[in-house]
Design brief:
alpha+beta; about 280 residues; seven-stranded mixed beta sheet; 11 strands; four-stranded antiparallel beta sheet; binds cytidine-5'-monophosphate
Length: about 280
């Protein structure tokens, strides 16, 4: 069995404050996009992971951790396309895809609550990927409200190639930078074009990696009207009016064109490798 593990962007990411457990309370509008890893599962005894980036196939890989959580095995093959530690949720999406593949391949028929608990155990970004599409994410990431799919939307990604640790960016966040009033709620049910995009983690990420601002300027110079980091960065994204405009912006700044992936597509599992 095979699934695409799509990347995400945070159209908004508002950090409301630090919690007693050390995590931060979030409100975020999250969207799956067309950049994707591919994950295959060949059910069987034992548990192995082959990855075209061999360094990633160690014991801490979320695919292997997902299998151990569900006490199931098999041979996983992972083809990485999503840059690592880039704010696009690549590792988290792989982990969620592994949970979905195991659930399907072994006909576990796990209740949603159990899959969600396993996903939250793997990481704060993982529960979202059990739903994909457009969703409101709250709490530390474990509360996911799926929203209706957005209309077709093109965008440009610009990855500065500067890996940023999520934990380090949260540590750098100052209490006074936390969002006082959430604007994310005003997004729900709206078309993203023209809505305010915010990301509380942008300032701390830029303090840790000042080069981010030069990459934002590259996107703006290429014709983007607005550009923000996704998650804790450092990948920047800019929404575009249409496919043609996205291609023009990407060509001018060496970026990558992508588009929103609706829920049904994000959750598709195929018997064979997708074409
Ligand atoms: O949940 P996950 O292990 O992916 O999170 C990585 C790190 O990011 C956490 O150890 C924590 O420092 C930070 N984090 C946070 N608040 C969140 C999510 C992550 O402080 N809601």
């Amino acid at each position: 069995m095979q699934a695409r593990a799509y990347a995400k962007i945070n159209l908004t990411l508002e950090v409301l404050g630090k919690r007693p457990d050390g995590y931060h309370e979030l409100v975020s509008l999250v969207q799956t996009i067309s950049l994707a890893d591919e994950l295959e599962l060949h059910p069987g005894d034992g548990l192995t992971l082959e990855c075209d980036w061999p360094d990633l196939a160690d014991d801490s890989n979320l695919v292997l951790r997902a299998a151990r959580l569900l006490s199931r095995g098999g041979r996983f093959v992972l083809r990485k396309r999503i840059p690592v530690a880039a704010g696009l949720g690549g590792g988290s999406s792989d982990g969620a895809a592994a949970l979905r593949l195991l659930n399907a391949a072994y006909q576990l028929d796990l209740p949603e609550s159990e899959l969600l608990a396993a996903a939250a155990d793997l990481g704060s970004d993982v529960p979202f990927f059990l739903y994909g599409g457009t969703a409101l994410v709250e709490g530390r990431g474990e509360r996911v409200t799926p929203l209706p799919d957005q209309p077709e939307q093109w965008l440009v990604l610009l990855n500065p190639g500067l890996p940023l640790s999520t934990a380090a960016v949260f540590r750098e966040l100052l209490p006074e930078e936390c969002a006082a009033v959430s604007v994310t709620a005003s997004w729900v049910g709206q078309n993203p074009a023209g809505m305010p995009m915010v990301n509380t983690l942008e300032a701390p990420a830029e303090r840790l990696e000042p080069a981010i601002s030069a990459f934002r300027q590259k996107l703006l110079d290429a014709g983007a009207s607005e550009a923000h980091i996704s998650g804790s960065g450092a990948t920047l994204f800019a929404l575009a009016a249409d496919e043609h405009s996205a291609a023009a912006i990407a060509a001018a700044c060496d970026g990558v064109v992508a588009y929103f992936i609706p829920r049904q597509e994000a959750l598709r599992i195929q018997p064979d490798r997708p074409t």
